[in-house]
TrEMBL record, chains A, B, C, D:
Name used for this protein in its record: glycine oxidase
Key words of the record: Oxidoreductase, Thiamine biosynthesis
Enzyme class: oxidoreductase
Residues that span the membrane, as ranges: none
Database matches in SUPFAM superfamilies: FAD-linked reductases, C-terminal domain, FAD/NAD(P)-binding domain
InterPro entries: FAD-dep_OxRdtase, FAD/NAD-bd_sf, Gly_oxidase_ThiO
Organism: Bacillus gobiensis
Amino acid sequence: MATHYDAAIIGGGIIGLSTAYHLAKKNVKVALFESGKVGKKASQAAAGMLGAHAELEKPGVFFDFARASQSRYPTLAEEVKEISGIDMNLKTGGILKLAYSKEDIESGNQMNRLDSVVWKSKEEALAMEPSISESILGASFIEDDIQVEPTKVCKAFAKSARLLGADIYEYTPITAIDTDSAAITIKSQNETFSADQLIVASGVWSGHFFQQLGLEKKLYPVKGECLSVWNEDIALERTLYHEHCYIVPRKNGRLVIGATMKPGDWDEEPTLGGIGAVMKKAASMLPAVTRMKIDTFWAGLRPETEDSTPYIGKHPNDNRILFAAGHYRNGILLAPATGSMISDLVLGKKVNQEWEDAFAIKDKERQVI
Amino acid sequence: MATHYDAAIIGGGIIGLSTAYHLAKKNVKVALFESGKVGKKASQAAAGMLGAHAELEKPGVFFDFARASQSRYPTLAEEVKEISGIDMNLKTGGILKLAYSKEDIESGNQMNRLDSVVWKSKEEALAMEPSISESILGASFIEDDIQVEPTKVCKAFAKSARLLGADIYEYTPITAIDTDSAAITIKSQNETFSADQLIVASGVWSGHFFQQLGLEKKLYPVKGECLSVWNEDIALERTLYHEHCYIVPRKNGRLVIGATMKPGDWDEEPTLGGIGAVMKKAASMLPAVTRMKIDTFWAGLRPETEDSTPYIGKHPNDNRILFAAGHYRNGILLAPATGSMISDLVLGKKVNQEWEDAFAIKDKERQVI
Amino acid sequence: MATHYDAAIIGGGIIGLSTAYHLAKKNVKVALFESGKVGKKASQAAAGMLGAHAELEKPGVFFDFARASQSRYPTLAEEVKEISGIDMNLKTGGILKLAYSKEDIESGNQMNRLDSVVWKSKEEALAMEPSISESILGASFIEDDIQVEPTKVCKAFAKSARLLGADIYEYTPITAIDTDSAAITIKSQNETFSADQLIVASGVWSGHFFQQLGLEKKLYPVKGECLSVWNEDIALERTLYHEHCYIVPRKNGRLVIGATMKPGDWDEEPTLGGIGAVMKKAASMLPAVTRMKIDTFWAGLRPETEDSTPYIGKHPNDNRILFAAGHYRNGILLAPATGSMISDLVLGKKVNQEWEDAFAIKDKERQVI
Amino acid sequence: MATHYDAAIIGGGIIGLSTAYHLAKKNVKVALFESGKVGKKASQAAAGMLGAHAELEKPGVFFDFARASQSRYPTLAEEVKEISGIDMNLKTGGILKLAYSKEDIESGNQMNRLDSVVWKSKEEALAMEPSISESILGASFIEDDIQVEPTKVCKAFAKSARLLGADIYEYTPITAIDTDSAAITIKSQNETFSADQLIVASGVWSGHFFQQLGLEKKLYPVKGECLSVWNEDIALERTLYHEHCYIVPRKNGRLVIGATMKPGDWDEEPTLGGIGAVMKKAASMLPAVTRMKIDTFWAGLRPETEDSTPYIGKHPNDNRILFAAGHYRNGILLAPATGSMISDLVLGKKVNQEWEDAFAIKDKERQVI
C-alpha cells in the first residue's frame, strides 16, 4: 500500500522547505521529496541578501510581495529557532546601493522616493562605510534590506518541519506522477506514494514536471558565480550593491561576493572568467578586497521564467496540483511569502488577489510586472 | 527540428562512455546524455581493480565474460591513448587474495585450480609482499588481475569518443522518451532529439527508465565507502584482497582502500561507521596502514539487480531500445566487453550467444549464473 | 632604530594571544610575534571543552587555578565581544563523565564529592542524554564544565588586542634574542625590535627559547588526533567524556571528537590508526555516531613538560624574561588565568603565591601537583 | 652520544633534497633536517617550467649554469626513477615566449640569436598553438625549455636519497648550531647531532642561519601567487610565457598559471588581488582559459638575494660550512647543478671556477651577472 499524504512537495530547496514548514505548522500531513540533499544547489549558492529594493527597484505588485516576504523574516527567524534551535543568522545593517554615474542616480530616483530609502551623498556614504570606493557619487541607503544565511534558513525550515511531523525524503528522485485517480500517485525509484495535492518546487529543474503535467512552461538557468574572502582588516557593516553585484558581510568576518549572470548555462561549476569578473567588480566597490584572502568559490543556477516572474499558484486545469518555481535571483527573499501563500492555497484559504493573478500559471502571456 | 542520431545513450558513467567510444569507432553517429558530468558517481568511486577472479571466484558464463573484458584492457588502453593522449594508468602486479582460515582456503580451492591462479604458502606470500599481515595462512596469487584508474578510463573514453565524432551532452537530464514514432524522441529540459536506437546506461538510476519503458526491472543501490592513504614507507606492488575488501596500490604512492556493502542506501556520502569498518579491515590485511596519512574518503552506489547479473541487451518488446546497466561491483572490469557487445547489437552483428542469453532482459527470472 | 615595546610576546597561540589582550587592556605597549598565523597549531586543534573537573579530577593548586580560569570565561567572552564583535560561542550544558566499570566509578569518587559534581545513575544519565551507550553504569555530571570555540577565542583575543593598541606581527619568526643590554633585543629575519620585558609563549616550540635563554627545560609534544561529524539525527546537549576522549556538541550540529595521545610525535598530520582509534572510542560512548557523516579530521601537538605542570612565571636568573608554556591538554581552559597572571607579573603586581610557586621555572624538580 | 654524519643539510626543499641525493650517491653519510615536511613551501608552489632562456634572457655565467642544470634533467629523471620508481613527469614541448609589442621583440633579440631559439611569426606561432591570443606579433620558440612536476621531483630525490642511505628528519627544526669544536654540533628541539660539514639550504628562511653563522647576508621573499585550471577543450602543447607570467600545460590536462611578484611579503596565502591579476594576464595570453574550471590556487615565497644571484659555496671564514640558497624564481631549474656543485665541494673536488666565483658568498658586493 502506498503511503498517503495530504500534500506532497517535489523539491527540497528553500521554496520547498518553506512550503513544507508552513504546511506542517497547519497540521497538514506533508511529504517532501528531494533527489539529493535538501538546501543545496541554488539555495546554497545564494548570498542571502534580502534585497527587496536593491533588486526590484520600482513599486508594483512584485515589489509589494517582496516587501511582505522580507518583513516576515524577523518573526519567522524567532519562530523556527524556538522549534529547531537553529539560528538563521539574520543580520541587520541594510544595503548601500552605490551610484557611480548620473545614469545610476537617475535610475535610482524612483526608488529613492520611497520612505524606506534615504539618499546619501558621497561624504555621508563614506562616513557610514569608510572603505568603499572614492569613485562613487553617492548611494541609496535601504535600512530594511537585511540578510540571512541561506544554508541556515534551509536547515531551520527542514528541522522545524520534521519536528512538526513532515516527512522529508532525501536522495529520492521522483520518476513518475499519475494524476488519473482521485489521489495523485507519485513514484520514486523503489517506492510509491499518494497525495491529495502536489506542489512542484524544483527550481530550474521544474520545467520537466511542467512538461509531464501537460504545461508548456519552460524554466531557464541563469548561472551565478560567487566567491568569498576573509576580512580581518576593515569595518564593513552594510551590504554593498551595484548593478546586480554585491558584497555581503557575514557576522564571522567572511564577505560573500557575487554574482555573474550567464543565461542558458546548465553547468554548475564556476569558470576562471566568471570568478575574474566578480573579483574585478568587487574591487571597484571595495578596493580593500584585493588584499583579502580567498576563502572559496562556487556557482548556482537561478531559475528564470520567460517573463521573469515566478509561477506561484494552481495548475490551470487541475487544481490538485500547484507550482512554486522560477524565483530567479529572489528565492531567499520570497521564500516566506511563497510558502505561506501555497499553504493557504492548499488549505483553501483566500489569498491576496493581486498576488494570485500576478504569479498565476496561465496559458497566455502574463502582464509583465 | 530535432537533431537526429543513429544511437543515443543515456548515462555518462563508464558503461555509457565505453559504449559511446565503441559506437563512434564504428562511425555510428552517437550522442550521450548525462545529467551531471561524465565519469562521476559510481564510476569515479571505484578502485579500478580488474578482479575477474577475486570477485567472481567460480567459472561459468559470467566469469568467462569478465575474463574476456579484462583481457581487452591492455590493447584498449593503447588504442585510446593513441587517440586521446590520456593514459588509463594500467598497472600490473596482480592480486593476492589472502586466506586467514581453513574456510578461506576451501572457498578458494575451485579458483586455485585455474591456470591463471597460483596458491602461495604464507612464507611465499610474505616473500612477495613483506608488509602483509603475519596472520595469513597463505594467499591465492592472480597475476592477470590488474588495475586501471577509473577516472582516467572515463576521461580517455570520453575524449576519444568526442574526437571520433560523438556528441557528449553534460548537465542534460533526459526528461521524456517517446517511442511511438519510427524514430525515438528524447527530450531534455529545453531541447528535443531523435534517434534510431536508444541505450540506457544510467547505473542504479536506470530503474526509472526501465519503468518508463514499460519494464518492471528494479535496480538497488549497494553503497560502498572507501578511503585512500599515502604510502611513503613500505613497498607494496600487488593489490591485496579479502572478503570484498581490497587495498589497491597506485603508481603515485596512494593506496585506495574499500569498501563497505550497504544495500538499499541511496545516500552518497560515507559515514563514520563505514569508514571505521574499512580502516579496521585494512589494518588486518596490511598493519602498516595504521601509520599512514589519510588522503580522503568517499562513497559510491553500486547498481545491483535482483539476480546480481547485469542487464545487457535489447528490450524484449522493442528492439530499438537497449540496456547496459546493473554491473554492481564490476563496472570498470566489464566496461570493455559491455561497450563492445552493445555496439555489435546496435550494428546488427552476431554476439556470443551464451552472453546474450545470460544478460538478457527477460520477463521471467533468469537462471542465476 | 629598533621599534621599542614595553613587552614583547613570542608565540601567537591562545596563551600568547590572551597575554597580549590582558597587557593591552592595561595600556602596556605590547608586540606579539608569530612565525605563521595566529590561532593555529595546537590552539586550532583543540575542542574547546573547558574540562576543569573532567581532566584534572582531584583538588589541589592546579585544579584551583583551572577553576579560576574557567570561571573567568563568561565575563571575558562578553568583554571581548563588546570590543571586537567576535563571539567565542560559549556553550553551556556541562560534561557527562561516563563510567563503564567499577574502576571508573571508584576513580571518580573523589571528584564526585565536590559540590560542583553530581553523580547520575544509568537511568538518570540516559534520561538526560538518551543517545549515549547503554553499557554505562552511570556518569558524573559537571554542569560548570562548559565549552568555547577555540578559533573564535583566538580571533576575539587577537582583534581585541589590536584594537586596544597591540601590534601583532604574523609570519615573523624570531631568529635571535640578545639580553646583554638593558632593553632586550629581538630580531626577526629582517627587522630588529627592543622590549623591556619578553614573554615566551610558543607552546611545544618554546623548548628552543628556554635553551637559547640558558635554561634546560624541555617540552615534549603529545600528538592528539581528532575528527568531526555532522549530527542531524539526535539530540545531544552535553559533552561526553571518558578516559581522555570526548564528544563535544557544537551549536551548529557539528560534533568534535578527540583525541589520541601520542607522546614524542612531532608530525602534525593524523594517521589512519589514530583516527580509527578515535572513531572506535566515540562509537563506544555514542553509538549513533556511526551513522553520521564525517566532516573533517586533523591533529595538534600538545606541549607537555617533564612534570606535566605548565611553566608560568619569571626566568630564575633574569626577571625581564617570562614564560607561559607547557599547558598540555589545558591551553584553552587555562588561557584566561595565565594571561592575567603574566600581565600582573609584567606590571609588578602581586599574584596568588600558591600559583606562583606551583608554576615557577626552577632549577630543581617541582613538587608534582 | 650525538649521532654523527659526514654532512648535514638544513632545509628539505628542492635544493636540499637534490644535494642530499647527490651526496648519498657518492656514499657520503648525510642527514637532512626539515622543520616541516620535505618538498613543500616554495618548492611545491613552483610550476616546474625549466625556463633557462625565458627567465634569464641574456648569455653569461648564470645562463651557462642554468643551461647546464637544465640539460641534466633527462638523465637525472631516468636515474632517480630507476632507484625510486617515481616519475618526475618531465614533459617536452618547449616554451613560446610571446611578443605583443615592438619592445617585446627588441628585448628578445639577443636571446633570439641563440641556436636554441627560433623566432616565429604570428602565423607560425598560431599554427603551432591555435588557441593563443591573436594580439601577438610573434613569439620566440625555445624547444629546450622543458618542464617537470616539482612535487614529483622532490619526492623522487627524497626517496632516492633515503634508499641510498641518507637520513631525512622531518618536523625537526634546528634550534642551535655550535661550530667551536672540530665537528659541528647541530641541535634540534630534543636531539643533538654532529657533522663534519654543514649545508644551509633553507630558501628564504636561510637568512636566519647566515646571521647565526656570522654573515650579514639577507634573503628577501618575493611572493608568487598561482592558480590552476582544468583544460578539457583545447590543445596546448607548449608553455606560454610573457613578462614573468606563464601557462604550463600538464600531462593530465591541468594548466598551471602564475605568478605575481610581491617583494617583501612573508604571508604564504594568495590574495584576491593577486589571483585576479594572474587570471587577467592568463586571459591575455590564452583567451580560452576564461571558459575553464578553476582547480585551486596557492602562493609561495621565492628566496631573493640582494643582487638576485644565489649563494652557492663555502662560508668565507669556515670552510666546513656551505650555503645553497637564494635561487629566487629558478630553484627547480637550478637544483641539479646546485646539488652536484655542493656535492663536489663537500668531497673536495674541483668545480667550474667561473661558477664558484659567480655564486660565492663574499663580504663585498658580487659583480652582478
